[in-house]
Amino acid sequence: MKTQQHTTDYLGKDFLCSLPLQEKSTLIQNNTIADNLQDFTVQVATSDHIFWINEICDVTLSSALARGTGISGRSAESLEDKMKNGEAIIAFASDGKWAGFSFISSWENGKYVSNSGLIVAPEFRHTGLAKLIKRKTFELSRQKYPEASIFSLTTGLAVMKMNHELGFEPVTYSELTRDDIFWESCKSCVNCPILMTKERKNCLCTAMLYSPKPNIKI
Question: Is residue 11 within 8 Å of 71, Cβ to Cβ?
Fold first, then answer.
């Protein structure tokens, strides 16, 4: 396992645990907020973290294959762009080992934001780390795109529960972005034929949406 190198100079399905763990937050340089959760540090990824992309992609793919679930693939190049643009969250253990990752994407000129690619390294699962990464990813979405509706597609019950805690609600696919580029990314998923057969109106994933504007009942 690689360890974090300090210098100056993938999508997937989720591996989660909802165990509550105490958190301590500190501000660090370059407006990066890091959370120390027991032995973990969770922060916004930067270009300094490109070193970890191959491991992130490998673990994401092997985990999906082991679970026998679909996976919407992301290239190493696209994850590199996410890191450079401050649109990803990365986590490390106290000894510098990579521990987890997630990223966000904006659609339709910032009208929608997707939270995707949540993955936790096998040795750090069932620690509560995924819940913290999920929350930090949500906070990053709200910070960068405060007016956007945030959505998540998942087959995992634990992810659905965490989304619910953050204010997400189940919705139909018609309430998600219509951007073809987003749906193109589903072609690498084994369940894509189901999605295409149903004309992108439904699939095995549950769609959940967070709206920054409360519904007004008349």
Answer: yes
Per-residue pLDDT tens over the stretch 4-52:
443 322 333 343 433 333 333 333 333 444 444 468 999 999 999 999 9
Strand ranges for the chain from DSSP E: 24-27, 33-37, 40-44, 88-93, 98-107, 112-120, 149-154, 169-171, 206-210
215: DSSP letter: P
CA-based nearest residue to 147, from 214, 212, 87, 215: 212
Among 115, 81, 103, 112, CA closest to 179: 112
Contact indicator for 136, 35 with CB cutoff of 8 Å: yes
From CA 110, how far away is CA 11, in angstroms rounded? 20
Query: Contact at 8 Å (CB) between 84 and 97?
Result: no
Q: State the amino acid at position 165 in one-letter form.
A: E
